[in-house]
Amino acid sequence: SVDSLTIQWAWSWLAHIGFWQYLGLFYKVFNYSYFIFCFFQAILGSFLCVLVYFLSRYIFNEAVARIAAIFSALNFSLIFSSIVIDIMGLNVFCTTLVILLLCYYENNLKRSEGRPWLFIFAGFVAGFLIMVFLNNVIFLLLITFWVFCFDIRRSNFRNALIHSGLIILFSLVAISISLYLFGIKELRAFLSS
Q1: Residue 191's closest CA among 10, 17, 6?
Q2: Which tens digit of pLDDT belongs to each residue from 80-95?
């Protein structure tokens, strides 16, 4: 029916507003080139293999990292998402990047104090992830909870509040910037209809 199409369109627009903005900006820069878009998605997928390698090496060991990188390179859904206009490639790439940043934080605690830029960058990426797919709010809550519990376990309540607060603050900054630059007019028009 017409009503269900309107509801599906509305959900698709609201739940994936960041992806539509990303696609629109990409098309504006590269003049609607599907080939260049697919090429860029393939580059993200290729770089994802590198992120998976470093993440697996940190969590497990060198042998597991090599196997995980090979499997991620041969992952059909990632290969498929590089040749279609879809959120999956971008979503998996950004999620892996945030987890790698948090593992970097955990690994480098002994050498120096926590680095605020890690949490600022992780917050920006998490905010972009929320704009790409609205359900990623759960991911933001999970990583914020993990950072908070990790710092509490180290008996550092002040850092727990600062680090988790930076992630939430800068994810909200990323969402605000994204809405202001690309989507506020469309959001107002949608809400008023």
Answers
A1: 10
A2: 777 777 788 888 888 9
Q: Pick left, alpha or beta for residue 113 (phi over 0 → left; psi -120 to 50 → alpha; otherwise beta).
A: beta
Residues recorded for the chain: 193
Q: Is the Cβ–Cβ distance between 85 and 27 less than 8 Å?
A: no
Residue ranges of the alpha helices (H) in 60-179?
62-73, 76-81, 88-107, 116-132, 137-153, 157-178
CA distance 15 to 38: 22
Residue 124: pLDDT above 70? yes
Confidence (pLDDT) at 2: 44
Half-sphere exposure of residue 27: CA atoms within 13 angstroms, side-chain side: 9
DSSP secondary structure letter of residue 177: H
Residue with tokens 């580059």: 43
- 114: DSSP letter: P
Does the structure show a pLDDT above 60 at 116?
yes
Could you tell me which residues come within 8 angstroms of residue 104 by beta carbon, excluding any fewer than 6 positions away? 58, 118
